[in-house]
Design brief:
The chain is an alpha+beta fold and 273 residues long. Helices cover 22% and strands 35% of the residues.
């Protein structure tokens, strides 16, 4: 009677190696599938936002040009191209952009650093109208007074302004009154800030969470330029990094702001706060 021959050690090791290879391939496929699902989810949210808010877009600057670019494109369709004065591109580094990919603009808090987005009528918001202004910011140093992140001001008149106080609070200014948030924006961390004005009330948002509300409208419409990175034509300079600035001619809902924040946090690769 013939004896059955068992597997040799080499044969067993070969089988183990093959099984391990199959498992590795399967794990890569699962990871790729999850990544595709994540990306699909991001674009799904982004598509919803664009379809629902596209008609209200006054200005959208994603700051991804980088390199030697001296302007930044407005994706709202209104042609509000931003002219970069002094601010530096920071790209492909975790300390520079939230995801370590793409680009943002670095403002050193001096009078040479800002973006001039012009005075197109699409950026003028009448006091009876609604407006939402938002941006991703990373504060390097707090200002001595106030620092403008997005501002529609000239030498004597303010239409609207979103900025940071010396205590790190979010503020809005309309030429006659300043309102501030309850919570502060931490230094050295990427955070999403927003203000929304509707029917005489301004509401602040930090990382997609509603903060303080107060009585406010926009100020006087004027032909001054819209600035990113400073509050006035000659002062209130922001010291830090700014990314993905948006202005909507609508007081968008909490749900919409949360979707924009979640989409941004997912796209930028940071943990939701």
């Amino acid at each position: 009677m013939r004896k059955l021959k068992g597997f040799t050690l080499i044969e067993i090791l070969v089988v183990i190696a093959i099984v391990g290879l199959i498992i590795s391939i399967a794990m890569v496929a699962v990871r790729n599938s999850k990544e595709r699902a994540r990306i699909t989810n991001v674009f799904f949210f982004d598509g919803i936002i664009k379809r629902s808010l596209g008609a209200y877009s006054a200005g959208i600057w994603d700051f991804n040009e980088g390199g030697a670019a001296t302007t930044t494109q407005d994706f709202s369709g209104n042609g509000n191209t931003g002219v970069i004065a002094g601010a530096d591109w920071t790209c492909a580094g975790a300390a520079n952009t939230p995801s370590g990919t793409g680009c943002s603009l670095y403002f050193i808090g001096a009078n040479s650093d800002f973006v001039n987005c012009g005075n197109n009528n699409s950026l003028n918001i009448a006091s009876a109208d609604k407006v939402t202004v938002m941006a991703w910011v990373k504060i390097i140093a707090l200002p001595a007074g106030n620092a403008g992140v997005v501002s529609k001001r000239n030498a004597t008149t303010t239409n609207y302004e979103l900025g940071i106080t010396s205590a790190g609070k979010i503020f809005n200014y309309n030429g006659t009154a300043t309102n501030i948030s309850i919570r502060s924006v931490p230094i050295g961390q990427w955070r999403h800030i927003a203000m929304s004005i509707n029917q005489g009330t301004v509401t602040f948002y930090l990382d997609g969470v509603a903060d303080n509300s107060a009585s406010s409208t926009t100020g006087t419409v004027h032909q001054g330029n819209l600035f990113i990175g400073k509050g006035t034509p000659t002062g209130e300079f922001f010291n830090g990094l700014i990314d993905d600035v948006r202005i909507y001619r609508e007081s968008i809902t909490l749900t919409q702001i949360q979707k924009i924040y979640a989409e941004g946090a997912e796209r930028l690769g940071i943990a939701k706060k």
